[in-house]
Amino acid sequence: ATVPKISEHFRFALTETFERRNFEYAIFLENDLTVSPDFLWFFRSTAWLLEEDPTLFCVSAWHDNGMRGLVSNENNLFRTDYFPGLGWMI
Description:
Layout: H1 2-20, E1 27-29, H2 39-52, E2 59-60, E3 87-89
Antiparallel strand pairs: 1-3, 2-3
């Protein structure tokens, strides 16, 4: 019963965002996510990727190992074939 509820929630949110309010982009966050100070800047800086590359579904600000001390280059972006969720822009 959980998956249909989540699906309906996303349907409502996407319809409200893009069809009813005509926003160009939307950022979706898990309700318990703590964001970094550059969170919005990151999405503003990567929005153009969604316009330029029709094969992209979203831009995500989440990486399981993306914490200080585990990242070798904080300026790299990675393309992945799985949906990373948590904090993403479509």
